[in-house]
Amino acid sequence: LDPRLGRLGVLVEPASVVVKAGDHALHMLRREEMPVSVALVTGAGPIGILATMMLRRAGLETYVVDVVEDGPKPDLVRSLGA
Predict the structure, then answer these.
(1) Confidence band, pLDDT 50/70/90 cuts, at residue 72
(2) Is residue 40 within 8 Å of residue 63, measured between CB atoms?
């Protein structure tokens, strides 16, 4: 990794997983001509948060379910518009 990424470098691998999975899933749904407007993310860990960001950026109404109900996770999810 480029040292200029600093602490953000840890997000490179999870982000690549999310992008690959998200692109593949959306491609499959659109290929079947299924309208896609709502998404559900199970888990608000690093992968779930990155998936939420990707889905919101794609314009999908996004819901996130996680076992943690208190603390920074719910606030972060809300700040992303999910």
Answers:
(1) confident
(2) yes
- Its pTM stands at 0.77
Residue identified by tokens 């076992």 is 67
Helix (H) or strand (E) holding 42: strand 38-42
Q: CB under 8 Å, gap of 24 or more: what pairs does 25-32 form?
A: 26/58
Those residues whose C-beta lies under 8 Å from the C-beta of residue 51, and which sit 6 or more positions away, are 18, 21, 22, 41
For residues 31, 32, 34, 36, the Cα torsion angle rounded to the nearest 10 degrees is -30
The amino acid present at 5, given as its one-letter code, is L
The two structure tokens encoding residue 75: 């606030």
